[in-house]
Structure to design on (462 residues):
């Protein structure tokens, strides 16, 4: 059982939520929240406004009735406040705060979780409020606050919905650092930091908020503690330590959101849902774990993480079958290998291009047979034959050459995935490393981009 920090004094850090709803934000945000009916939990995705991302809010939220205690979070070993945490009296503040930080902590710290509201935050009952979501970035009701009371963006309030208007009238007459905690709410002043962030933590049913964390861009949670405690609220970890902990905790490392942002940054073409193919019946998969491990060994790459091996093998097979369906099948009726090679790999003029290397591997008959290849070639032949309407016998030379091309591309991908793993602080390859390897390489991405599993993730995770 965790040791609960003692609540701050009743006079300065304790308030009562009688209405079952809390308003939050700058003074004008609170006024707007008070004018709106109580809001239920939602997970609003950010939208682009000019050059920034903002999530819509009405600045109030249903919250557990009763006493809420407020804790100053200080730089470890000092009394300098770097963040604030409020939670219902029935919640364990240490457990609740660490739960929030695991899901969505400071975006300025390593392994901070989700930076925006997403599927993970929704599933865990965390509402993310970022720097552009409140304060002066939303001017609704700002005309009702004296201009002198709007000059500061270094503090926010948290107050009972039913008493919000009265609280604002009291607070607007005081300087931010002098605003007193009221019976119905508290004012959270941060002397350091340019931008304010917040997180609400909800109960398991995601009906009532139980906690509220407010911090700045200067807050470092690995160097932040409850008052009179020497234990940071978040333990420092190396990137490798974090990776192994996440593996133990069952993270799948799909990295779909990261891959999508990367694709946008690189202006990669992402086929529409109608253009994507798969997922396929695993019975059709031509490659086993042994085959993928062989390509990894050929590339001199890091090993696969055993915890996510199935996801990588699935992705590799889905990429291969998507390449067969979108590219190989339409050319299966070519009269000879040279004609097929020209149709499949037309950008072969440069000796360093991927198309040039694949072209030569398809038409070459001097390559020694790969002892690993017989089973994959057999399954690939059946796959192509069933879709192209050609006999398996007529495809022999063609599919043998295609296998050489696929083996080359996958060996290249394994090498790139290993490099990505090192860059990501991993000592083993996980799905995000493989996915990023394909997306960041324009030539490989073009070959495999129609795979639905590559673009959207494992069927088991969707």
């Amino acid at each position: 059982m965790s040791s609960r920090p003692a609540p701050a004094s009743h006079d300065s850090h304790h308030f009562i939520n009688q209405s079952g709803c809390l308003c939050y934000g700058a003074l004008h945000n609170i006024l707007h929240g008070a004018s709106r009916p109580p809001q239920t939990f939602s997970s609003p995705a950010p939208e682009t406004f000019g050059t920034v991302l903002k999530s819509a809010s009405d600045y109030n939220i249903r919250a557990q009735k009763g006493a809420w205690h407020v804790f100053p979070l200080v730089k470890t070993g000092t009394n300098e406040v770097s963040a604030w945490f409020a939670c219902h009296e029935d919640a364990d503040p240490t457990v609740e705060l660490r739960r929030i930080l695991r899901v969505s902590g400071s975006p300025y710290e390593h392994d901070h979780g989700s930076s925006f509201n997403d599927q993970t935050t929704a599933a865990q009952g965390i509402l993310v409020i970022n720097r552009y979501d409140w304060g002066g970035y939303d001017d609704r009701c700002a005309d009702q606050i004296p201009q002198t009371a709007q000059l500061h963006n270094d503090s926010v309030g948290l107050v009972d919905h039913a008493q919000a208007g009265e609280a604002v009238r009291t607070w607007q007459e005081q300087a931010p650092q002098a605003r007193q905690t009221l019976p119905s709410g508290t004012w959270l002043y941060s002397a350091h930091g340019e931008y304010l962030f917040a997180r609400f933590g909800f109960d398991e049913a995601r009906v009532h908020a139980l906690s509220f964390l407010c911090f700045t861009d200067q807050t470092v949670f690995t160097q932040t503690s409850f008052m009179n405690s020497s234990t940071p609220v978040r333990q420092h970890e190396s990137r490798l330590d974090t990776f192994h902990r996440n593996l133990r905790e069952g993270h799948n490392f799909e990295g779909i959101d990261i891959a999508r942002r990367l694709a946008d940054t690189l202006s990669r073409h992402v086929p529409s849902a109608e253009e994507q193919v798969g997922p396929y019946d695993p019975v059709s998969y031509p490659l086993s774990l042994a085959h993928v491990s062989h390509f990894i060994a050929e590339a001199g790459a890091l090993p696969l993480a055993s915890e996510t091996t199935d996801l990588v093998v699935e992705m590799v097979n889905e990429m291969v079958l998507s390449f067969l369906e979108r590219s190989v099948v339409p050319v299966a009726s070519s009269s000879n290998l040279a004609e097929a090679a020209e149709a499949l790999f037309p950008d072969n003029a440069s000796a360093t291009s991927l198309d040039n290397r694949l072209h030569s591997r398809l038409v070459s008959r001097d390559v020694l047979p790969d002892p690993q290849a017989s089973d994959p070639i057999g399954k690939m032949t059946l796959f192509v034959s069933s879709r192209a309407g050609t006999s398996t016998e007529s495809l022999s030379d063609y599919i043998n050459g295609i296998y050489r091309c696929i083996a080359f591309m996958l060996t290249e991908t394994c090498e790139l995935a290993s490099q990505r793993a090192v860059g990501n602080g991993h000592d083993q390859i996980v799905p995000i490393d493989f996915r990023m390897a394909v997306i960041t390489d324009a030539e490989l991405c073009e070959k495999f981009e129609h795979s639905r599993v590559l673009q959207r993730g494992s069927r088991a995770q969707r």
Observations:
- The chain is about 35% helix and 15% strand.
- Residues 14-236 form one domain.
- The CA atoms of residues 46 and 137 lie 14 Å apart.
- The chain has two domains: 14-236, 248-461.
